[in-house]
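quick one, 441 residues, struct below
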Amino acid sequence: MNVTVAGRVEVTSRRFLAIALPATLAQMTTPVLGLVATGAIGRLGDAVLLGAVALGALLFDFAFWIFGSIRMGTAGLTAQALGRGERVELRAVLIRALLIAAAIGLALIVLHGPLADLAFLGMGASEGVRSAATVYFSIRILSAPFAIGNFAVLGWLVGIARTDIGLGLQILIAAVNAVATVALVLWWDFGIAGAAWANVLAEITGTAFGLIAAARLVGRDWRVPWRTVIDRVRLVETVAVNRDIMIRTALIMSVILFFTAQGARHDDVTLAANAVLYNIVMVSAFFLDGFSTAAEQICGQSVGAKDRAGFRRAVRLVLFWGFGFAAPATALLLVGGGPLIDLLSANEQVREVGRAFLPLAALTPLLGVAAFAYDGIYAGATWARDMRNMMIPAVALFFLAWWLTLPLGNSGLWLAYLAFIAGRGVFLALRLPALERGTFG
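---
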């Protein structure tokens, strides 16, 4: 972990890729969880069940990914503590994050009924889809403390530049989920409930091994004075960073929820086709997000070490490598997206609709890479308030684009989403110079 010398941070393509590539693979395992459930249920050939998994998983993602801010906030705070050389604070950051994760997870379990009812009320799906999605959501929410705890552990590992261990943990979670899903859904015929229980088991396993890995990294010197953990200044900083990133994430998820709801209002087939496309796109998006993760670590460490030159090099690297991979990702989706749609759904109508909108969905990596890049830069520097503020005009752009393209139906919906992700990158880029001056002087 000792990569800070005399206020300077090592910022090279070699180090950047050493962090980014394991993080890339680790990030890809997250949508793989959705792909496994979608694929297993999709093989049953029932569009209602496939739509229910999409709806239930989306509501789960909305609840959990809002609190996924803990990963980004923990990564930035950890990297800055590393840059300042504060070893005790490194451990304290993880403990605070885990305590917050446990509290939020338990609260979600207690409140999941009213939250699900409220969410389903505005989704516009059929009664069959809502009923099956409720079963899925009510089981999978039991993994809340563990899933959010895994965000905290992963963020801490990113902050100390141990994305290789993070990759191992994410692969473990994905593997347990895949095996359990196939067994419960396709072998033992537990249906949609089996897909949910498989995810609960996977998250519990990930948390257990994540804590073991963190303990081994810390070694014998794991103790942190309680007064350090509850230090008022640090607690206020932690809560503020996570709160603002949480609001920013909630805004993103509100757009995705609206996107899904509009698909549901067309019919179950369009809902299912959009779900298949979105899961495919998210694999490439999380692939590119690995570069964002590297930016979190290096930019955060540069801020902690007050190394302005290192920070600027990190910004250039994340943009260079991000765009370098975005174009091939889009090309790969255009070429290979059709067969993947066929693999994920046995329903011919879903396949046909999915292929019709694939060209628009395939543009997501290319138009969204800047948003991912600047997210990593901002998270590492803990410019959480500005991440939140710049999301507001991006959301406004989405709804304006949707309203203008209403006559185009589902094509207009995809165009609005593309405008949203492109706008995020533009607004964050415009704000960056002023924030850099304020941070480094």
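The chain has 16 helices and two strands.
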